Amino acid sequence: MRTLRSWFLLLLLLPLAACAPPPPTPEPPPPIMPREPNIKTRLNDEELVQQLQALSFSEVRLAEPRLILFRTEAGMLALRNSDDGNLQLIFYGSGVLCHPEMINVWNRRHRFSRAFLDERRDPVLESELLATGGINGERVKGFVNLFVSSVKEFRSFLVERCE
């Protein structure tokens, strides 16, 4: 009898349970962001020169305020230090004639740099590191190393696809 009553209650309450709104889902906790050492909103020119020298690049020099030139195995690069803390790396591929369509091919196939023809129609490759989330030596190191790899690939691309 008791079992019959339990079944009867279950049959009565089951449709009510289906109509009840679901319990609220708890908010997920905020993601735990790794704490990186020495995060700053910007690095000054002297700090950037020291970073590049620590990465064993040669001929590191401050050409003018906010513009650092340095030599890598991929060639001579320029690092522009913007007022807002963002960094821009630039490679100038002078002396190469390249059709704009070939530059477009590069840009379609590569994500972390962009190529264009400057006013003299020389190919240029550049990339930017935004300082929005902060900047430190490790981020600069990763940025420069990735760009050096891109420049090597870009130079090969120019030899293969341009005159």
Overall shape: it is: extended
> What's the helix-strand series?
HHEEEEHEEH
Q: Provide the CATH architecture.
A: 2-Layer Sandwich
Largest sheet: 6 strands, antiparallel
The tally of strands reads: 6
- Tell me the radius of gyration: 28 Å
Number of helices: 4
Strand content: 15-25%
Alpha-beta content class: alpha+beta
Q: How are the strands of the largest sheet arranged?
A: 1-2-3-4-6-5
Query: For the residues shown, what is the average pLDDT?
Result: 87
| CATH topology-level fold name | Yope Regulator, Chain: A
Distance between the termini: 95 Å
Task: Give me the secondary-structure topology.
Layout: H1 2-19, H2 45-54, E1 58-64, E2 67-72, E3 75-81, E4 87-92, H3 100-109, E5 114-117, E6 123-129, H4 137-161
Antiparallel strand pairs: 1-2, 2-3, 3-4, 4-6, 5-6
